[in-house]
Structure formats: structure tokens, C-alpha cells
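Homework help thread (please don't just give me the answer)

Our assignment gives two proteins as sequence + C-alpha cell strings and asks us to describe the second one. The first is just a warm-up. Here they are:
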Amino acid sequence: LYRDPVMSRVVQLADQVAPSDASVLITGESGTGKEVMAKYLHARSKRANRPFISINCAAIPENLLESELFGHEKGAFTGAIARRIGKFEEASGGTLLLDEISEMDFRLQAKLLRALQERLIDRVGGTKPVPVDIRVVATSNRNLTEAVRDGIFREDLLFRLNVVNLKLPPLRDRPGDTAALAEHFVEKYAKANGLGRRVLSAEARDALLRAPWPGNVRELENTLHRAVLLSGGEIIGPEAILMPDGTGLVEAASTATLAGQIAQTAETVSRALVGRTVADVERDLILDTLDSVLGNRTHAANILGISIRTLRNKLNQYADEGTAVPGPGEQRHSAA
């Protein structure tokens, strides 16, 4: 479900590559819908009628992940009482999703690379390679290029996985999707809980668009599920929408807006300072402060954290250089 142009471009690329067997790496923050996109790729591929198998590389202990992926033979290790096929063989003819691939052990990455290159796997304890016919899709919420630089991810494996990269934008960068998803989740959970029609008020929709959603779509869904349950009637107002920490939606949205304004102001100020000398910046700060207190030297010195003598010496210097200095009770004309 999407309406925002930013997401439309990602889906368009997914549609282009879905029919191929090329490996796809789906990246993005947690909660942006990487697994949903992987299922979409499978559904649009020529393997759509074959299995879609998913394995979370971060959720399985390192010593068990190899067996989960590649299977094992009877007697391969203590407790291996029978042969077991792994996810690669389960996905035969279909798609294998390697979720959170960045968490895979470095040693196991080498075995995965061989499987991708040769389309052959070795069961744990096995003596004969097993051919596999699958398409591999991987996801990561970490920057794998940085992981390569840090020595925890193989560069050759990254190249093999990243034939096509689908980067899912965070929810804060696609406001059109926030509105559409919000309406969808309200309808979904009203129906799931056997409630009547539920509608977001205009104030609630506005606050939803301004909230930061660090957990992205997953956080939005959970928040609106809660709102449906807490609303006292058909109209869901902002007071019924609580963030996971109990903060009201309006408060969270206001905080996010203020933080954005501060960041934007800081960036603007930083840009304005580039290329200027410290003396120039200091002069403007002193004179702007003096303007703000209508030329009151004592007040200005207190604000600036300097002595009145230092301030007077600076002002005398500026006057000698031909710079307009406001007198007591005055402002410069440019500041009026």
C-alpha cells in the first residue's frame, strides 16, 4: 500500500527486476517494510507459484544457523538423529529471503557465497554437494558498505547479493504513505476487533503527518491499533492516539517539529558562517546583541559574557574602522 511518489519509484524498480532471477538486496531502517517488499518481488516473479522461504539470520544462534540454511546429515553432530533439509532446499524452485543478512557470521558468509556462485550447497556432515535452484533476496537495516570496511562483512558476498538494491525510504520521507497507511490500519483493526466504523479526525491526521515515527510503518500500525481500541466512538481524535512511551500524539508531533526547526536553523547558521573570519562573526554578534538591548552596554556585556571594558574596547575599534555603532537607546538603521 503506497501513494507517495518516493515509494512509487521504488516499486517501479521492483516491478522491473521481479521477473529476473537476479539477487536483490533490500535496505532500509527497521519497520520500513523490507519483508513485505521481498514477498512482493516473489509474487511478481516467475517463481510466484513456488515456495517463499524466509530465515532471520539475527534470530538464530550462530552454531545453528548453518544447519538451518544448508541442512544436515544423520549423525553430523550430537542430536542429529535424522537427515534434515535446510532452507535452501525447502525453497527449491522459489525464493529464499535472508533477513538481516548483516548479522551472519563471517565464516558462514564464505559458505553462502559458494552456494550463490555455484548453486550448490553442502549439508552439514554431508559428502556430496546438492544442487539448488532458487532466487535469493536479502535484507539489512545496516550499511553493508560500512560493514565491509569494518571487516565484518565480505565484500565479494556484498557484490553477489547487491545485483539490484531496493532502498526503502523511512516513513518520515513519504508523508503520502503515512496518511494512506493510517486509514488502512484504522479500518483493518476496527474490523479485526469487531468494532463499528472508525475515522480519523482532521486534527489526528495532521498530527500523524508531523510525528517522527522512528519505528516507521511497524510503529504506525501498532499505534493505530491501540488508537482504535482506545477511541470512545466513531471519530478517532488525537487524544486517543498514544505513542509507545505513553506520550500523546500532539506532544510527539510538536517535539518532532521543534527538533526539525532547530536542526534547520543550525544548518542555516552553519552555512552562513562558512568562509567568514572569527573577527567578522564576533563583530556581528556584538553589534546584533547591542541592537537587541537598544545600545545598553552593561546589559549587552552581561549577555555576551564579557566585561564592560572589553565591550567598550571592541566598540571603539569598530567605530575607528568605520562601522556604525549604536549609542545608548539606539539601534542601527539596518537592524530596525
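The one we have to describe:
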Amino acid sequence: MSSMRTFRTRRVRLAGAAAGVVIAALSMTACKDGTGISVSGAPVPASPSAGAEAPAQGGGTGGGSSAGVTGTTGSTGSTGSTGSTGSTGASAATGTSGSKGTSGSTGTATGTASKARKSAAAVTCEGSNTKTVAAPVSRPLNHMLLTVTNTGSKPCHLYYYPAVEFTGAQAVPPVIEESKPQAVVTLEPGQSGYAGIALSSADGSGSGGRTVKSLGVSFYGSDLGNGGVGTQARPKLPAGGVYIDDSLKVTYWQRELADALKW
């Protein structure tokens, strides 16, 4: 038992002595450079080598080598940059609201009202507010054209057809029904309307043929049954007169000259 204690005591002493030698050697190394000359100031550290060990110093039984110089810690890698946030998608464009419908133009409304007033104020065309001209035409054969012009200050209506009376006439000649227009012909001041007169048959088949030298033209009102209204027109005929027979007929009043001569 005592020999074991003695052995342990020796080991402790040897370990202490070895440690002292190492410390002394390190002190001497710190005070001299490689030439044995003392160096003042702080020791210049050798260039570190990661993980390199210093050479063992001193000796002695059981003396351990000095610990290697700890290598420098590697630099921390830079943190990766944060990715940019994706752009927000554009909102869908709001549809435009429908445009408000335009109201009817005042001008049109005024014009319509004005036209209505004029129509309401229109009078019947007759001999005192018109001028009537009777003129034979070359085509169609045996035809005459009546032209009536509004000479008044108001619009006038040419109702139905002319009631013509040649010299010695016993009755008003019949009208060609196929010539009836879609609407009553209205003449503004200065405007003209037309009617055709078929004087006699083109093939000479008509009876009662005769030459006449005077003509009277009467005008109907809105009610045909009331007969002629106003003043009768007395257009002049050619100096030699015109030939008529019992096939004498007239057309309705027309707005266009061509429509009056196609029957």
C-alpha cells in the first residue's frame, strides 16, 4: 500500500517537473529570435497554418507535446440575397359604362312642331290663291297638261282631281282611278302640282268629237261630295282651240309632272 502511494507521488512530481521545463522553454523561445538575440516588444506571431502543430519542446519522461495552434475560423458565408417579390398582377380594367342615349334634338322637335303648325294652317288650293296653266303636249298623243302653282302665302292642298269644264260641257269628265296618289298633294308657296287630261282617243274611236276654245278648272275641298270650292280658274287655250271627244278623262293631282302624263 505504501509502495503504491510512493509511486503515485513520484508520478506527480515528474509531471510537475516536466511542466516546469516546458514553461521555461516557452519563455526562452518568446525572448529570443533564431539568432539568440533578445527581441523587445510583443512577439511577432508566425503565419498561422490551419491545423498545424508546434514542434515538441523539451523532453523528459512522460512529457507531452504542446497543443497545435488552433486554425482561424473560416469566414461566414454571405447570406443569400432575398428574392424580389413578384409584381402584383394588373387589375382587370373596369368596363366603361354605356353612354347615355342622346335625347331628341330640339331642332328636329321644333321643325316637326313648325311643320305641324303649317299643315294645320294650310288652306285649299283654288282659283284665288293659285295660277293655272293649260298646255297641250306632244306625248302622249291628244293630251294636255294642267300646271297649278301656289301664289299665296300659305300652303294649300290640291284635293282629289280637277273638275274641268270645256265649252258646252254637260258634266265633269271622269277620273282615271289608277292615277290616285298615296297622299294629298300639298303645295308650299311657289310650288306646283300637275294633272293630265286625255282629250280624245288616240285611235279615233271616240264619239262626239268637237273643237273647244275655252276651259274652266274648279277645285274640290276635303269633302268631294260638297263639289267645287272657291274661285274657278280660267286658263287660256291655244288660239285654234283643242279637239275633244266623249273619251275625255283626267288624272288625280300629282306632285311630279311625269306622273301626270303617264296615263
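TA reply:
I won't write it for you, but here's a hint about the kind of observation we're looking for: Residues 1-99, 101-107 have pLDDT under 50 and may be disordered.
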